[in-house]
Amino acid sequence: MPSPLDGLPVALGVSGSIAAYKAVDLASKLTQAGALVDVVMTSSAQKFVTPLSFQSITHRPVTSDPFDPQTEMGIDHVAVAERAGIVVVAPATANTIAKMAHGLADDALSVMLLATAAPVIVCPAMDGNMYANSATQYNLGTLKDRGITIAGPAVGRMASGLVGAGRLIEVREIIGHMSVVLGRSGDLAGRKIVVSAGGTQEPIDPVRFISNRSSGKMGYAIAEAARDRGAAVTIVAAPGALADPVGVQVVHVETAMEMQNAVVAASEDVDALIMAAAVADWRPRDSADQKLKTGKAVSSELQLEKTSDIVAGVSREGLVKVGFAAETEDLESNAQGKLAKKGLDLIVANDVSAEGSGFGSNTNEVVLIDADGGRETPGLLPKYEVGHRILDKVRGYLK
Ligand code: PMT
User: Fold this and answer.
1) Is the model's pLDDT at 87 over the cut of 60?
2) Of all residues in the chain, what percent carry a pLDDT higher than 90?
3) Are 274 and 394 a contacting pair, CB within 8 Å?
4) Could you state, in order of their start, the residue ranges of all structural domains in the chain?
5) Euclidean distance between the first and the last CA atom of the chain, given in angstroms as a whole number
């Protein structure tokens, strides 16, 4: 399944803030994802970045003067507004937000915003006191009431030197908000899905633990794919370096036992549970309260005990259960055994010794084996794409 941004006409409104330089990066990332980005700038935005910066990146004309007969807006003043599949205003200044709230149309950006029927995301960026001002808060409330998504601002250091709420959110987050908005009409809209991710950590003492090589990328990719199709998604995440995706609830855990408790709680009323996490099968029987000293005589034998099988223990009428099988030999026969033993609808057999597959990579090569004997081999794909293939199967099982 292609990215929801692929081929999508996006209108990017840029108003006059020091954060306008981040909009150049946003235009670049959207263009790389296949979006057709039409940039519409205010005159004050042009004091910070030039139309040429955007034009060079998007390879499309930039609108900045509604009366310029050479631009598309000069010929058809609502063409960009009508073409857009989604509109993003980033950065949105207090002035632009006020104009939107009051329906003004006195420059290229405000004309486009008033004329569009597409969903709109506003990403505020301004001085903290301007953001906190009751006029701005009232205007943002008005926009929210009209169904406009307000994304941010972030808290941090602003150009004024003040620390507070007013910074433009990160480009990654803006694209996350776009995915949430675009996913609302997806084929999993109204569905709830829990995904586990990462490798659990089982403590030996306060500074040492037993774990594995899972980065969490596979689980996060499934979660993002489900979000992009409209599902309400919860990730139960073991420790890792990945940022929480926008629009997904993330429950952070460390041990297998914590993951079990979180998965059981989160799965109560969901449609599907997808266990991509590499849960430790064994944990130290005793975890020392203090750091074990290397100088003293310490038993070299670590006593281990079995952890509970999380996915096998969660069972409810109508719940779709997907497990993974991380294998280094006898891939499909081992996976078949786990499918039956754990009561799964689908198992994702994962040869973790293959090149570009398994732990830490951005791609994965899996075999999808279902309880009815179906078998699919999607080939080596980005993990996000593997996530969609799994979700295609899940959708088929949903009642
Ligand atoms: O996170 P990445 O770096 O992207 O790597 C992805 C991955 C290789 C971790 C992932 O693709 C994968 O294969 N995950 C499953 C890893 C695993 O623990 O496999 P397993 O064969 O040991 O377990 C079988 C299934 O039982 C899994 O769904 C597992 O989550 C589940 N399980 C295992 C043990 C346990 N105590 N409880 C469980 O629920």
Assistant:
1) yes
2) 89
3) yes
4) 9-182, 187-397
5) 22
pLDDT exceeds 90 at position 158? no
Tell me the torsion sign for CA atoms 331, 227, 272, 265.
positive
Question: Per CATH, the architecture of 9-182 is what?
Answer: 3-Layer(aba) Sandwich (3.40)
The region, left, alpha or beta by phi > 0 then psi within -120 to 50, assigned to residue 179 is: alpha
Catalytic residue flag (residue 212): yes
Q: Whose CA is nearest to atom 10 of ligand 1?
A: 276
Residue identifier of the C-alpha nearest atom 8 of ligand 1: 358
Question: Quick check: 262 and 253 in contact, CB under 8 A?
Answer: yes
Query: How remote is the CA of residue 325 from the centroid of ligand 1, in Å?
Result: 6
**Average pLDDT of 251-276?**
97
Task: Pull the structure tokens for residue 285.
Answer: 């029987």
CB count within 10 Å of CB 232 equals 18
The CATH H-level superfamily of 187-397 is CoaB-like (3.40.50.10300)
* Across 242-271, average pLDDT: 97
Q: Percentages helix, strand, coil for the chain, rounded to the nearest 5?
A: 35, 25, 40
Query: Token pair 């910074």 is at which residue?
Result: 167
Task: Report whether residue 26 contacts ligand 1, using a CB cutoff of 6 Å.
Answer: no
Between CA 272 and CA 312 the distance in angstroms is 14
Cα 319 to Cα 130: distance, rounded to the nearest angstrom: 49
- Return the amino acid letter for 47: K
Domain 9-182 and domain 187-397, same fold? Reply is yes
Tokens of 396: 């088929």
Query: What is the maximal distance between C-alpha atoms in the chain?
Result: 85
Q: How confident is the model at residue 71 (pLDDT cuts 50, 70, 90)?
A: confident
Q: How many residues does the chain have?
A: 399
